What we know:
The chain is α+β, with helices and mostly antiparallel strands. It has helices spanning 50-61, 67-84, 92-99, 111-120, and strands at 8-16, 19-28, 31-41, 44-47, 106-109. It has a five-stranded antiparallel β-sheet.
Amino acid sequence: MDLRAAERLELVVTDVRGTRTIGLLVSATGKTINLPIAIYSGTGGRELGILMLRRLADALAASENTGGLIYSELLVAQLRSEAKGDPAAERPLYRLASLAPSGRLAQRLRTDAVTRFVASLD
Length: 122
């Protein structure tokens, strides 16, 4: 799927048996995919690798969708946090995943809420 032609971009947090997955919901040309970016359980988890996060951030920044810049900035902040050696609980994606209320299988994070969150990052 070509991210530059994405018509809709949203973050989705799923919560299944104490494991939270944060993914990017992308809609383009009549197709929709959920691209998992990170999976957290407890105080740790797994995230996409540095190279993949950077490539995704670059593709989102080049997107025709204006929301792509917000998500690109979020991923760049995640990369900076990883480079500083921050523990998982201090990284932006973990913080966003933990802000979502528990008990709901899947929920979309509103773009304006993500925008405020990204603006509050250092």
